[in-house]
Specification:
- The protein starts with 6 loop residues before the first strand and ends in a 20-residue tail after the last helix.
- Strands 2, 3, 4, 5 and 6 form a 5-stranded antiparallel β-sheet that branches.
- Helix content is 9%, strand content 37%.
- The chain is mainly β.
- The model has no long low-confidence stretch (mean pLDDT 88).
- The radius of gyration is 23 Å and the shape is elongated.
- Strand 4 and strand 5 form a beta hairpin.
- The protein has one domain.
């Protein structure tokens, strides 16, 4: 799915002109519909600028995306915000077909790569860890094989 809002027409960027970018994207472009642990429902405000530098198209974008993500410990959903601030993409002009560049896929990748694999609802620890701790398996020290234990003595 591509949006005309994310298309950059290279012909408009002559003589070192800079074009301001501003659009509101539907979060559907993130393609999260089948993910039970991650969702985004609020529209995404994207701003930035684009220009040509030598033989490259330069695109600088900023946005803030609010997700609902599942805590890895207690499994509760909590809000998680991804902020992209002046992220820069470079694309050789010779690789752009039809003189129209769509930055939507690059923006999607950059947003999704910022999401942690092990998210915790309290930031650095789970807020509900005390309630969940009783269900976690305790490691028995005498049953653990430690091959290098003799080296410390």
């Amino acid at each position: 799915m591509s949006s005309k809002e994310t298309h950059i027409h290279i012909d408009r960027l002559r003589d070192g002109e800079e074009e301001e970018l501003a659009c509101v994207l539907d979060p559907v472009f993130l393609d999260l519909k089948d993910d039970p642990d991650l969702s985004c429902t609020k529209p995404i405000d994207v701003s930035g600028a684009t220009y040509i530098a030598g033989d490259f198209l330069i695109v600088e974008l900023s946005c803030e995306v609010e997700f609902s993500i599942r805590c890895a410990v207690c499994s509760e959903m909590f809000p998680y915000i991804v902020t992209l601030d002046h992220v820069r993409f470079e694309k050789p002009l010779e690789e752009i077909r039809g003189k129209v560049f769509d930055f939507q896929d690059l923006l999607r990748e950059e947003i999704l790569v910022q999401i942690p694999h092990f998210a915790l609802c309290g930031g650095y620890s789970c807020k509900n860890r005390k309630q969940v701790e009783k269900f976690l398996a305790k490691e028995k020290q005498e049953d653990v094989f430690r091959p290098f234990q003799d080296l410390l003595e």
